[in-house]
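User: Let's play a game. I give you a shape written as tokens, and you guess the letters that built it. Ready? Here's round one.
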């Protein structure tokens, strides 16, 4: 016997329609690449999204056609999200920080029909156009007054929108149809495409907005620092209209001064981004003796958040840190670090130790850890093993079957090594490819990096394994010092004493002017291992 309930398909267009109808006067604010601030409302965004959908139809866009973007966070990018998916096409956000050859590969692999781009990326587009013959049109996301001179034919975004009416009825789509496409950062091999559906996107928006997740509401002002080309800005362009939250888009200016100015001017209450972005913001605040007037919480993910950063946000500035974890293959949210009621009675030191973990699983995601033979390990917070996930917003296979079937008995292997406890709190101890194996035992590079960054002279740190004749591998600490700071190798190694197991302490320290990062802000350890492959440890 079936339940006697309506069967309404979950569709992305329903989000912007809901925001228009019930939060129509709520603002969307964008810092423009062309300069200045743009303001309008959810009602305006819905109207223009319908106009853009008509423009796509006029250009010959069909169901399941890929519509690409090379763009910052802004109102036009937001409109493409809804116009493309709402009409049945697929919004393909492309990471402009990748190498041009990788971007050309991605555009070709995705069979993108049109590419929208912010003016910042015109030189990149001029490089890409000869490499991407399948692209029918390159659309500059600006108005006629700011259209650039270029060596390729360009379409003007505003002219396309304004040439069409808003008389467009969103079609009733199967909720399992593809809605958006993101490619992994491709640190090893070619990037692989993750193809999200309307259903998975709506369920993820619901799950991420919950009180024990990002705790979003119509009372919030949300500024996603995480780019809209990085796993759809962690779903915030969908969860904000679901709740009716005000959206603030920072455009291309992601330095500490520009972000703080926008936070204060727009009354931002919630933000989200990777640790490297917050490092610049915190340094700006401390250097200028500044405070936050409205910011209540920030989501930090993308890579492990150093405990020193969490403490600085919370103790120095009164901003709650939601330490979170996920993957492109997970839409991306998997865990968020929020306390249960009984944790509130713990000491501050106990809560701080718990908050250093990546958080506890949210409904819609299931986790387990297994040993090398695939046997599930206990959820005791001590055993660590390979982390596997499953759920309705988690990838089942890659676009066009790249890499074959990734699942293991119906579970997706994350490539992370982690612990789980009985409350569902998960802690990443390392990437499986980054874990250091010394004398048959594992050393967590993440724990060592977090310890190093707690030193007042250290701006950023990475730890890699270096060959050792006796122990197979030993940890090498690679450090970028803060401007004007001075610290010696011996002082840093001594700093580890009493903070980690004695046999975990790195065997050597290397000082560098900068550390390499992936296009999404993670430490690029493949390059570090290549750069230091001939490093000789003093203990070797």
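Assistant: Ready! My guess for every position:
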């Amino acid at each position: 016997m079936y339940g006697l309930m309506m069967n309404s398909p979950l569709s992305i267009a329903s989000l912007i329609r809901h925001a228009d109808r019930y939060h129509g006067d709520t603002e969307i604010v964008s810092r423009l690449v062309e300069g200045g601030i743009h303001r309008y409302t959810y009602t305006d965004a819905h109207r223009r999204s319908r106009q853009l959908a008509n423009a796509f139809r006029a250009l010959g866009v069909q169901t399941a056609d890929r519509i690409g973007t090379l763009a910052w966070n802004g109102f036009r990018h937001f409109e493409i999200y809804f116009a493309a998916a709402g009409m049945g096409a697929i919004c393909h956000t492309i990471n402009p920080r990748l190498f041009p050859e990788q971007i050309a590969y991605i555009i070709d692999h995705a069979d993108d029909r049109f590419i929208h781009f912010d003016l910042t990326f015109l030189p990149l587009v001029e490089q890409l156009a000869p490499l991407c013959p399948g692209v029918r049109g390159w659309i500059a996301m600006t108005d006629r007054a700011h259209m650039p001179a270029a060596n390729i034919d360009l379409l003007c975004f505003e002219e396309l929108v304004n040439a069409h009416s808003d008389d467009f009825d969103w079609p009733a789509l199967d909720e399992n149809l593809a809605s958006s496409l993101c490619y992994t950062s491709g640190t090893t091999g070619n990037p692989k495409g993750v193809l999200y559906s309307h259903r998975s996107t709506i369920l993820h928006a619901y799950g991420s907005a919950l009180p024990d997740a990002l705790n979003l509401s119509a009372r919030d002002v949300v500024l996603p620092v995480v780019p809209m080309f990085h796993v759809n800005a962690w779903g915030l362009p969908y969860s904000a209209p679901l709740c009716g939250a005000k959206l603030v888009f920072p455009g291309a200016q992601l330095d500490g001064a520009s972000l703080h100015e926008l936070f204060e001017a727009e009354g931002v209450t919630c933000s989200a981004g990777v640790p490297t972005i917050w490092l610049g913001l915190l340094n700006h605040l401390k250097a200028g003796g500044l405070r936050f007037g409205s910011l209540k919480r920030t989501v930090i993910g993308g890579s492990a958040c150093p405990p020193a950063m969490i403490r600085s946000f919370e103790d120095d500035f009164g901003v709650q840190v939601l330490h979170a974890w996920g993957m492109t293959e997970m839409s991306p949210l998997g865990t968020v670090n929020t306390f249960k009621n009984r944790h509130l009675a713990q000491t501050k030191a106990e809560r701080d130790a718990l908050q250093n973990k990546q958080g506890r699983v949210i409904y819609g995601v299931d986790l387990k850890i297994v040993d090398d033979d695939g046997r599930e390990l206990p959820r005791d917070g001590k055993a660590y093993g390979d982390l596997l996930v499953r759920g309705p917003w988690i990838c089942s296979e890659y676009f066009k079957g790249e890499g074959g079937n990734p699942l293991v008995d119906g579970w997706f292997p994350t490539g992370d090594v982690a612990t789980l406890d009985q409350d569902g709190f998960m802690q990443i101890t390392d990437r499986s490819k980054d874990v250091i194996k010394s004398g048959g035992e594992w050393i967590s590079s993440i724990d060592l990096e977090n310890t190093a960054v707690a030193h007042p002279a250290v701006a950023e740190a990475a730890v890699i394994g270096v060959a050792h004749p006796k122990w197979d591998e030993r940890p090498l600490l690679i450090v970028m010092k803060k401007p004007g700071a001075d610290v010696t190798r011996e002082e840093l190694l001594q700093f580890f004493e009493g903070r980690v197991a004695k046999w975990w302490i790195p065997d050597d320290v290397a000082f560098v002017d900068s550390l390499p990062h992936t296009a999404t802000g993670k430490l690029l350890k493949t390059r570090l291992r290549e750069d230091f492959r001939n490093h000789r440890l003093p203990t070797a």
